[in-house]
UniProtKB/TrEMBL annotation:
Essential cofactor(s): Mg(2+)
UniProt entry keywords in alphabetical sequence: Hydrolase
Source organism of this protein record: Metarhizobium album
Nudix hydrolase domain ranges (all copies): 8-136
GO molecular function term, any single one: hydrolase activity
Coiled-coil regions listed: none
Name under which the protein is recorded: DNA mismatch repair protein MutT
């Protein structure tokens, strides 16, 4: 059958969790992009809607309770280094309860809130694309409010 992302393109889902204009990022321990800072997320299970996978992964990885989420963007990672290929749907939320904590220390080494203009390095491709979309969304909202 093979492994998603390795033997055939995998489908992933990520969640950009925002609070007070800051983004929650975690440092990955495993490929793809081990050592990079990323939004929470993971593989979409068979017959699981991507939005539910994003919520499930976020709750598993952070211990937060996630409420309403909205679609943000899609992204694709083709990593020659890791020999992995992932297509991911990215969602965004500000509707959270609790304080984030590392609940999967075998997968993530650090967790923290970051301003969109003061991000840790290196950023994963998923996080970089997410931040670009979040900044565009923020700029659009600011322009709309000013008119």
């Amino acid at each position: 059958m093979g492994l998603p992302g390795i033997d055939f393109p995998g489908v992933g889902a990520g969640l950009a969790i925002m609070r007070d204009g800051r983004l929650l990022l975690c440092r990955r321990l495993k490929a793809p992009e081990a050592g990079h800072w990323n939004i929470v997320g993971g593989k979409v299970d068979h017959m699981e809607p991507a939005v539910e996978a994003a919520r499930r992964e976020a709750e598993e990885e952070t211990g937060l309770t996630i409420g309403k989420v909205d679609f943000l963007c899609s992204t694709e990672l083709v990593s020659e280094t890791d020999r992995q290929h992932w297509i991911s749907l990215i969602y965004v939320t500000t509707d959270i309860k609790g304080e984030p904590r590392l609940t999967e220390p075998d997968k993530l080494s650090e967790i923290g809130w970051y301003d969109l203009d003061a991000l840790p390095s290196p950023l994963s491709d998923f996080a970089r694309v997410t931040v670009e979309h979040l900044k565009r969304q923020t700029d659009h909202l600011a322009r709309s409010a000013a008119s």
